[in-house]
């Protein structure tokens, strides 16, 4: 028995297992901020990743362009057909916007949950083991990014900032499994909107789970799901996806909808981090 | 300059994993399949076998920590696994001759071991709900496929480089 404990390697192994458990415990704790050493390592590797990333992206971009050329004719045809529709829509949007502004001026209500300041960022890395779906972007606290801000691509919401260090930050994608990851959202229905929460992601169906919908709410397929801005961090009106199927949830008291995400989580190069204008104003006031 | 060669190579392998995932063509196969590049582990095994065991373990600790901090944000997982695998690989290699085929085969075995280990930890801490069958067919097999292709292309030049470097040092 003493022989057994004298074995140096075994002791080393045991100590490192204890160390491993302690470290995992430490990192699973709900941390507001990363330690400065982690931030430093992240920023340094972020710089190296950025150096490698640019040429690689160029080469990949070239091949993508060749692929695009093949589809150009077909796409062009489709786009031309859509163009007329677009002009009409544009005119309508303009008048509505103007009307909205006028009405707001009448009400003396300047801020809205919808307004946000966009911060553009480039994706410089992605978690290779893909257990947690995360991407690394090249903007950090120095550029005004904070934890929990919404991250979008032009097509829709893709996730939120998980941790921000000084010059880089990590984005947790909506497809990550995280029970604390709840987003207040609503469905644009014909008769009023229906509120609920986006909670989780179904890997098999590749759809987000939109839960806590009142049982009598009328939701149909193809209806748009948007952020409601009531959660406190995200602005209102960012597109999340469209309803795919509505089912009663496990207890039968509320309904649940499968939502097909509007943005592609696999193909993200450029993202926009969204800073809510209301928060920015309040910050300025408290300073 | 020559002393910097190995660290530089390690950094290249480290960054290449993230680049690979990012640039991997997304729509060719079903998106359910997850191809995990384990190039860094392959590099560590080759260093352990063709350079020295100590270097393999030291690189394992450093880049395992980097991997944890930068990519996964769960500290300790890879920092523990990489050096341990390097150590075991060195032990196992005492029984075999260092043929390239043996090294490649061993790499595949250890990649599976690492995948199982990480899957186990993810299950334990409740970050995944994937069942074993799903893990096996959507993660393990595609991962092995990708890394086998990588070994097919890069194992020979990598071995030559490392062996040459080691000889020069001696």
Kindly describe this structure.
The complex is a heterodimer of chains A (287) and B (170). With 287 residues, chain A is an alpha+beta fold. Chain A has a domain at 182-261: Thrombin, subunit H (Beta Barrel). Chain A is built from four helices and twelve strands, in the order αααββββββββββββα. Chain A has helices at 2-6, 8-28, 36-107, 277-286; strands at residues 116-126, 134-137, 150-153, 156-164, 169-173, 182-188, 193-202, 207-213, 224-227, 239-248, 255-261, 270-276. In chain A, the strands form two sheets. Chain A has a six-stranded antiparallel barrel. Chain A has a six-stranded antiparallel β-barrel with strand order 6-7-8-11-10-9. In chain A, strand 10 and strand 11 (255-261) form a beta hairpin. The N and C termini of chain A lie far apart (66 Å). Chain B has 170 residues and is mostly helical. Chain B has one domain (2-17, 35-164). In chain B, 77% of the residues lie in helices and 0% in strands. Chain B is built from six helices and no strands. In chain B, helix 2 packs antiparallel against helix 3 (53-72) and helix 2 packs parallel to helix 4. Chain B is globular. Chain B starts with a helix and ends with a helix. The model of chain B has no long low-confidence stretch (mean pLDDT 90). Chains A and B meet through helix 2, helix 3 and strand 1 of A and helix 1, helix 3, helix 4 and helix 5 of B.
